[in-house]
Design goal:
Elements (H helix, E strand, L loop, with lengths): L15 E5 L3 H17 L3 E6 L36 H7 L14 H18 L4 E6 L3 E8 L5 E7 L4 E4 L1 E4 L13 H4 L4 E2 L20 E4 L3 H10 L6 E5 L27 H19 L3 H7 L3 H7 L2 H19 L4 H12 L3 E13 L5 E7 L2 E7 L1 E4 L13 H8 L14 E2 L2 E2 L10 E3 L5 H4 L5 H16 L34 H16 L4 H11 L4 H14 L5 H14 L3 H15 L2 H14 L4 H7 L14 H9 L1 H4 L3 H13 L3 H14 L4 H13 L3 H13 L8 H14 L3 H12 L6 H17 L9 H7 L2 H5 L4 H13 L3 H12 L3 H18 L3 H11 L10 H17 L3 H14 L3 H11 L1
Parallel strand pairs: 1-2, 1-7, 2-3, 7-17, 8-14, 9-10, 9-14, 10-11
Antiparallel strand pairs: 4-5, 5-6, 11-12, 12-13, 15-16
Helix pairs in contact: 1-3, 1-13, 6-7, 14-15, 15-16, 16-17, 16-18, 17-18, 18-19, 19-20, 21-23, 23-24, 23-25, 24-25, 25-26, 25-27, 26-27, 27-28, 27-29, 29-30, 29-32, 29-36, 32-33, 32-34, 33-34, 34-35, 35-36, 36-37, 37-38
Length: 920
């Protein structure tokens, strides 16, 4: 198929994509189209055609009743297949900070989420995608073929206009069910509500004082929601359906899905029933609950359905469909509890049967007759509400748009006449081919997929459709090096290390600035990196660097989102170096520490000149580094990469830090001063010098040098609080308590330090000061905890942050918080399990004054602490806690031995006085 003329970013765009329907499916497609186009810089015009006042809500998520909740947990409702936590994070940032992935959110909130995410995608694609919102219905679609062979759609709109498009996506949602089942006398009554979701449809039944009973025809999820809305004292809500079953409830504490051990595809329907029953029985015996068994069938449902014959599908729908739906599409626990209360109070009653007849009463209400398994039943009701749900047979639809496509042969009915026939979402015409660029998703594909109406399925289909729609229009990626002889040569911009970047010059400039600030440990890195990806949303390294500093440096970054963007972008436009770096970041964020370290070592072996990767590898101040127990791996990396960096200030700064880790303090000081002479703002060099002064016991000189640097070259440093913390260590060693209090007030108190840095620096200093007897009066650790998000305190991503969370919680005497952190650590990576969890247990012993147990636990942990990362000076706080526990347990001789050993390494007036006191 020939493509239209390509668009120019500086001129009008001749390519148009129409998305018909702006509910959930339409919003998900539009999000994917905008974001994919922005990454690939593919300009086009997007037409969103839907009469609703707000895009994203559709029928399902427009309800204002707060009792109506999603029937899928929030953790499975993200817009993005590759970022499952996106909706949960959105809720946390929009008024529900305590929400968890297993919660069932309000449906109206989900509509707001879809609308907001779509709005953000449109804004991010400005300059690439032009969006027009047409608040009307599409009533017809006709195709013509231009002389070049390019199909063009003409969409007829309900307001009389027509628009043309090169690509059309039909995101119309479920088709409305026919009310042909209703007795003729009922269909003509104004007491028959055919669409309970239509604006104002239930107003009469909800009027004050209105208590007439109501009959709901259908007992599925729609019926449950409407029953809760209509519920009131004195009213009974009746429900009738062929099966008479209400949906089952989700478990309050759900178990993981259990996959079926028996292959199910290709079995006859009878054999399939038997295999599924056996699967459910096995899971019941193992877990005591059938739900994991049903959930375990979800990944293979479409395959099983596809393997059935037409006759078997029809038999399944007729005989098993109701039972499947009530167990597969379940109620949230809170909804089930509300329904249970209504049934116990007899305000809700259900019947297995059908509505046989209806007649009007003198007061305008209705008398309905039901045919049930228990015999005929007559009920006086005020209203009858059609809750039978969407229609299955699209071929019976009265929708004029689908009717026009079916009538002209542009669409074919799907299996069992449910939905339409497609090839991966692209509609098949009467000739069986897919010659028209016309796609659909969600409910219209039910005949082919059976399960296709939930967000997890629709979002995956949306991503596939966006790729199919934009794929032929995607411009070829720029060459990795200079172009061939037949093209004008192009040179890619480079990063600070001279490595080529797959982006344009403006984004590369912003990226270099961000990396430069990271290497100098200066503020503004996150802002510069954000600008790089705003200028080029398809710039993988920009997204990866943002994910990295959010994960390891506590920057205000949506880490999963940035990482997902990096992984999408790197698949579309990247060279080997960029793919390797994104893999490094992915493994450090998503995998155990050993995987991340191995990937980083491989990357540096291939690209030893990559300064940002080298900064990540060395545990100095910005990143947690390689997490080996003795630090030798990081040292070998620094020494092995030296030829690629020469004697540059950055590499010299890292070497200085590693030399002080080796105890070669004089050499570390010389190297640090050399780096500072070349780049006075080098935070890494100053950090190495601070450690050298502290570990060699040169406290007065170290304090003066730090204060001078902070007042001048370090003014724009991103970790000023950490350098102040170093100065405060000198204050404590010199027993200058007035300096400690002053430094706290001026440089380390909350309001001057936030988030992770408040835990790592401010919180740890407070506890050191209290253990040293250097803090009198009110103890402001609560202020520190208030600045740290709850997930950082109790669900930290790294062992290094977890260490400082444990310290802060202990300093605050927060025993429950400490226990929650221990539970998290036991479920986290190996370092948190083996170090942080027992550390929390030892700190619990301290809070409960089990001094001997605390001392034994901390003694066992000390050799394993280097695996947490950070510096020896930071980890020393655990030894301070051990000394405190030893003295409190009466083991003064053991405390004296530890202090004497430390004084052999490093002079400290404070340690000397403590040793003297213990010896007297």
């Amino acid at each position: 198929m020939a493509s239209p003329e390509p668009c120019s970013t500086s001129g009008p765009c001749t390519r148009t994509v129409a998305v018909v329907g702006a509910g959930a499916a339409g919003a998900l497609v539009a999000i994917q189209l905008c974001e994919t186009a922005a990454r690939r810089r593919v300009p086009f015009e997007l037409l969103l055609i839907d009469p609703a006042p707000e895009a994203g809500r559709g029928v399902a998520y427009s309800t204002l009743d707060r009792r109506h909740r999603l029937n899928v947990v929030a953790g499975r409702m993200s817009c993005y297949p590759d970022d499952p936590g996106h909706f949960v994070r959105w809720l946390c940032h929009h008024g529900e900070p305590g929400v968890r992935s297993g919660d069932f959110a309000e449906r109206y909130r989900y509509g707001a989420y879809l609308a907001d995410t779509l709005g953000r995608a449109i804004m991010a694609a400005q300059g690439v995608v032009t969006v027009r919102r047409l608040r009307t219905r599409a009533t017809g679609c006709h195709w013509t073929t231009l002389p070049g062979g390019d199909p063009r759609a003409r969409l007829e709109l309900a307001d009389g206009r027509t628009v043309e498009a090169h690509r059309v996506v039909l995101a119309t949602g479920p088709s409305r069910a026919s009310s042909a089942w209703a007795p003729e006398e009922l269909r003509g009554s104004d007491r028959f509500i055919t669409d309970p979701w239509a604006p104002g449809a239930l107003d009469a039944a909800l009027q004050d004082g209105q208590k007439e009973d109501v009959l709901l025809v259908g007992t599925g999820l729609t019926s449950v929601d409407i029953a809760m809305t209509l519920d009131r004292p004195g009213r009974t809500v009746h429900g009738v359906s062929r099966g008479g079953r209400l949906p089952q409830a989700h478990a309050v504490d759900p178990l993981p899905a259990a996959a079926c051990a028996t292959p199910l595809r290709g079995l006859s329907l009878a054999a399939l029933r038997a295999a599924v029953r056996q699967h459910i029985g096995r899971v019941m015996r193992t877990h005591g609950d059938w739900r994991p068994a049903v959930d375990g069938l979800r990944p293979v449902t479409a395959e099983i359905w596809a393997s059935m014959s037409t006759a078997e599908r029809a038999e399944f729908v007729e005989q098993d469909g109701s039972l499947w739906n009530t167990h597969r599409h379940r109620m949230p626990p809170a909804t089930a509890e509300a329904v249970g209360r209504m049934r116990r109070a007899r305000r809700m009653r259900t019947y297995q049967g059908r509505l046989a007849s209806a007649s009007a009463r003198p007061d305008g209400s209705l008398t309905v007759s039901l045919t049930t398994g228990d015999g005929p039943r007559t009920l006086p009701v005020g209203w009858v509400v059609d809750c039978t749900g969407p229609g299955l047979r699209l071929s019976d639809t009265a929708d004029p748009l689908w009717r026009s496509l079916l009538d002209q042969g542009a669409a074919l009915p799907g299996p069992l006449s449910m939905g339409v026939a497609t090839d991966h979402g692209r509609l098949r015409g009467a000739d069986g081919g897919t010659t028209r660029p016309l796609w659909t998703l969600g409910a219209p594909r039910r005949g082919e997929l059976w399960e296709t109406t939930a967000i997890p399925e629709i979002r995956a289909q949306a991503a596939t459709i966006a790729e199919a729609v934009l794929g032929p229009w995607t411009a070829p990626a720029p060459p990795a090096t200079g172009g061939g002889t037949a093209r004008r040569r192009t040179r890619r911009p480079t990063d600070t290390s001279g490595l080529p970047l797959s982006t344009h010059a403006a984004a590369a400039t912003a990226y270099r600035l961000g990396v430069d600030r990271l290497l100098k440990v200066r503020t503004g890195a996150a802002q510069a990196l954000r600008r790089s990806v705003a200028l080029d949303p398809g710039f993988a390294l920009g997204h990866a660097a943002l994910a990295l500093i959010g994960h390891e440096c506590g920057a205000d970054v949506d880490v999963p989102r940035a990482l997902a963007d990096a992984r999408r972008a790197v698949r579309e436009r990247a060279d080997a170096h960029e793919r390797s770096f994104v893999d490094v970041v992915s493994r450090r964020v998503l995998h155990p520490p050993a995987d991340g370290d191995a990937a980083l070592l491989r990357h540096l072996a291939d690209y030893p000149g990559d300064a940002l990767a080298l900064a990540v590898a060395v545990p100095t101040i910005a990143f947690s580094g390689l997490r080996d127990l003795d630090g030798t791996t990081a040292l070998r990396v620094v020494e092995r990469t030296a030829p690629a960096h020469g004697e540059g200030w950055f590499h010299t700064s890292l070497l200085a830090f590693m030399r002080q880790e080796q105890g070669r303090y004089d050499e570390a000081g010389v190297l640090a001063e050399r780096a500072l002479a070349a780049e006075p703002a080098s935070g890494h060099a100053m950090h190495a010098l601070a450690h050298a002064h502290y570990e060699s016991g040169d406290h007065r000189t170290g304090r003066v040098r730090l204060e001078r640097w902070l007042a001048h070259q370090g003014r724009g440093g991103t970790h000023r609080a950490h350098f102040s913390w170093h100065a405060a260590l000198h204050d404590l060693a010199l027993e200058d308590t007035a300096a400690v209090r002053r430094r706290w007030a001026e440089q380390l108190s909350p309001g001057k330090v936030y988030g992770v840095r408040a835990l790592v620096d401010s919180g740890s200093l407070l506890w050191r000061a209290r253990l040293a007897g250097a803090w009198q009066g009110p103890f402001p650790i609560g202020d520190v905890l208030d600045t740290a998000p709850a997930d950082v305190l109790e669900r930290p991503a790294t062992a290094f942050v977890a260490l400082h969370s444990a310290i802060a919680l202990t300093a605050a005497d927060d025993l429950p918080g400490l226990r929650r952190l221990r539970v998290h650590a036991l479920r986290a990576d190996e370092v948190q399990r083996s170090v942080i969890a027992p550390l929390c247990a030892a700190f619990e012993d301290i809070l409960e004054e089990r001094w001997a147990d605390a001392a034994r636990g901390l003694e066992r942990l000390l050799p394993r602490l280097p695996g947490v990362g950070g510096s020896a000076a930071q980890r020393e706080i655990v030894e301070e806690a051990l000394l405190y526990a030893l003295v409190s347990a009466g083991r003064c001789e053991a405390a004296r031995d530890r202090l004497a050993e430390r004084l052999d390494r490093r002079s400290s007036p404070h340690d000397r006085r403590r040793l003297t006191a213990l010896s007297s």
